[in-house]
Amino acid sequence: MTKASFEQPGKNLAWAGKLVRMEEAEEVLTSLWHLSADNVRISQNVNVRASVLNFVICAPDVESAQRASSLLRDLCSTHIARVILLILDSSESAPTDVSTWVTLRSFPIISDIMRHNFEQITLRLAGPAIHSAATIIQPLFKPDLPIYLWWLADPPHETSAFTYLAGISSRVIVDSDHFTRPEQSLAHLASMIGNASPWALSDLNWGRITPWRQLIAQFFDVPEYQQYLSGIYRIEIEHAVSTPQTTPEGNKEASYQINPTRALMLSAWLLRSLSWEIDHNHQRNVHNTATGEHTWYTSHSTGKLPIPTADGIIAHSGFGSISIRPRLQPELPPGTLCLVRLLSTVDNKHVTFTIDRADGADHALTSVELPEGTRHQRTVSLGQDSADVASTLLHDELEIVGHDRQYEAALNEIYDLLVEEQ
Fold first, then answer.
1. Are residues 121 and 58 in the same domain?
2. Contacts for 245-252 with beta carbons within 8 Å, 24 or more apart?
3. Confidence category of residue 130, pLDDT binned at 50, 70, 90
4. Both ends of the chain: CA-CA distance in Å?
5. pLDDT in tens, 272-307
6. How many domains does one find in the chain?
7. Which residues on adjacent β-strands are paired with residue 367?
8. Is the same domain home to 283 and 153?
9. Tens of pLDDT along 26-69?
10. Which of 8, 22, 76, 355 has its CA 20 to 30 A from that of 413?
11. Beta strands of 214-335 (E only): which ranges?
12. 42 located within any domain
């Protein structure tokens, strides 16, 4: 194992605590606990110490590691016993190095009088030491406690620390909202899990689409609309993209910030909920990763559906379609869901169910367009759909024990959607 460069550390991470030799980490943490206990005895505070899980956060650089460390202040989870913040510095110029920092952190539970404490060990690995990351951190785990891994970047395709760390973890958490290769990374994750996977997989983006899934389900909680569920034949989903950059010649580049993962997840959930099957051989399927636009034609186990045509004649087809397209909304984070529209027809009655985000706000307008032309509208809050609530989403994931089968099934469906693109 490479020794830490204690005398000449590569970086001074004041936010990470005290710089120590790795073999001294346990001893220094023990002294910090003793100091904390002394402070409690001379104050009115009550320390709460829980030992429930090891939480490993794997970051690609110091900046993302610091953001994750700051987010822990708002996490408010009393489950964490020890955080191991692992920084994998893969820059070519970085010399082989293992640097270690330790600190004791706390946050108020109910008020500032009662505080939860947990340990944080930060390691920065550089050079060839990265390839031994899993071995290096192994002695730092609290024994007999589950390991939860939060991987902050795209999952690497090659055999790496990710594969090993996932293998020893009970749960792996990612956030596809920050993937640089979202569609490829989702497909890769889907290929790694299965019904027999020893580790569970979670994605913070799955939590972001929960309000949209709930709103869609609420349409059909109304007895009057339930008959139209089996008549759905077209689904349209729009996701936000940012403003394109301009070249020196004044031409618009196709360089939108594109991340259709939320739209893909919602599509997968709808496909499974409706028992639709993708026709991968359909000539009108569209796959454009560069623009985030996709269209799939589907077959339905319910048989042929009546479809309205342009001349008003009712045709019949055993196919439906689901499409994803970008919407230019620079005020929204790329990938934010903007619109969901379900078109249905039953007994020559045509109904459109719509959820439309209102001008980038945190609320949406839902409407139902009925055959008689009336529209039932209401404004609803999208709750925790914002990317600003990562701490809340992460807290919810730490509460889960075992596999999130609904999410994993949706991820497998995404793999089926994207398999033709790989």
1. yes
2. none
3. confident
4. 38
5. 999 899 988 888 999 998 888 999 999 875 544 555
6. 2
7. 354, 377
8. no
9. 999 988 888 876 555 444 454 555 568 899 999 999 999 999 99
10. 355
11. 232-241, 276-278, 286-288, 293-300, 305-308, 314-317, 319-328
12. yes
Residues 246 and 124 in one domain: no
More confident residue, 387 or 164: 164
Show the tokens assigned to 7: 């005398």
Q: Which two tokens stand for residue 409?
A: 């099934």
- Are 95 and 215 members of one domain? no
C-alpha pair distances (Å), 421 with each of 335, 414, 415, 418: 19, 11, 10, 5
Give the list of residues 6+ apart from residue 267 with CB closer than 8 angstroms, or none: 235, 237, 294, 296, 322, 324, 414, 417
75, 394 contact by CB (below 8 A): yes
Structure confidence by residue, pLDDT tens digits, 298-351: 987 554 455 555 544 444 456 789 999 999 988 888 999 999 999 999 888 999
Q: Maximum distance among all alpha carbons in the chain?
A: 83
**Could you identify the residue written with the tokens 């913070």?**
204
The total of other beta-carbon atoms located within 10 Å of residue 191's CB is 14
Q: CB-based burial of residue 270 (10 Å sphere; 0-12 exposed, 13-18 middle, 19+ buried)?
A: buried
* Residues in CB range of 85: below 8 A, 6 or more apart: 16, 57, 59, 65, 68, 69, 120, 121, 122, 123
> Residue 71 is part of which domain span?
14-169
**pTM listed for this prediction:** 0.86
